[in-house]
Design a protein that fits this description.
By secondary structure, this protein is of the alpha+beta class. It has five helices and 17 strands. Strands 1, 2, 3, 4, 5 and 8 form a six-stranded antiparallel β-sheet that branches. Strands 7-6-9-10 form a four-stranded antiparallel β-sheet, with helices on one face. Strands 13-12-17 form a three-stranded antiparallel β-sheet, covered by helices on one side.
Amino acid sequence: MADTPESRWEVDYGATKCRLIRHFTTADHAYRLEVDRGWTLGGFNWSLYGSALPAHSSTASIEIELGAGRRHRVQADSYVAKAGDEGVIRWNDPDGVVFDALRDGGLGRLTGPQKLDVSPSLPNVGAAIEALEACEKDLLASWGFDADRSRSLAVRPRPAGDPGKWVTRGDYPVYDAVNNNEGMTTFLLTVGADGATTGCRIIDSSGFPSLDAKTCELLLARATFLPAEDSEGRSVQSFYINRFWWQASR
């Protein structure tokens, strides 16, 4: 028996992503399901939130019913909730297999370790997905990109080197390090058809302009890519989104 939706579909217009959200209730607990496009990993990111979700200390294999007797397994992050906190189970859907099942109305029961067992009822999903895509279109337009063209890419840009070396703790601005200025900088890089980084913009600030500026300075100097490709295999301009956590040494 499917779990009862507590409310209508919601679309959250965030600074860096659009999220599709639905709340559910069961006889034992309440939880919510969230999905957003995985700008950094590709495909879609899925999350389950709830105070009564089970805990699991390592990555976990979750089985998802996709309809028509089909089953699909994903590797979820460890889901360990601190006492009194809301639990969360996350996984990436790089090829959009689970999202396609949602779109087709076939997404069903999710089961996994520690007696994870939920069956979200997901009616009226067509209009919800249209609203999600409209949000994404507006978001991409605000960044200077066409949504239809971006979605049609056969291959997204891939780092040509180790992204972990683009910005490091050794690059910490002295003033910020001394004053323990810390925060997460989320950035968008414009990647040319030749793989070169041609632009950088901050789409979610660390809270410190000097750290944000340093992030873009370093990325423009160091980040290179294998370019995106269209459906005909031609290299085209695109974008790349990621984040860096500036954390001072203790």
